[in-house]
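G., the chain you wanted modeled:
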Amino acid sequence: MSKFSKQYIITMKDIVREGVDILSEKMTDVSLPLGTEDQEALQCMLQFLKNSQNPALAKKYKLRAGSGLSANQIGLDKRMFAALFPDEKKEMHEYMLINPRIISHSVNMVYLPEGEGCLSVDREVVGYVPRYERIKVKAYDITGREVVYKFKGYGSIVVQHEIDHLNGVMFYDHINKENPFKLPDHVSVKSLY
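Predicted structure as tokens:
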């Protein structure tokens, strides 16, 4: 029985930190239809993101703000993640995706000028993380229905960061080792802001 039931509130003590094996392993596909335990874990993950982005609740529970949370970040070997982020019009969108796959992506890339952060990484990591500007993702939603989403800009960065987690890849694995601010030569890469 998972502790991540409907009533459970995920806090920073539940977040697996870098160096723990599950963050460098490829996660296992989730069986469909989704069981109650997996549904509740996903809802807990999304609720954590909502709480972390609410200044009063973030302070109360001592949460770092997050835009995405993958199952292995709370110790579950499952290919699923929750995400909560604004689009270009500043409207918030929430996702709970199971067994996600990037099925196509743009050639052009973008990066966050301030670099990326991660709830599992407690230190500052400097450097640019090049990501595809646009991606198309096929996944299943919490009801087990197949869905296809297109993401661009910040949403594309968040979703790629979370899918990387499910593949055992950390954001800093994309940073150039010799020069953290060097971007790939062979493609168009621009700052998101």
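The longest strand covers residues 92-105.

Shout if anything looks off.
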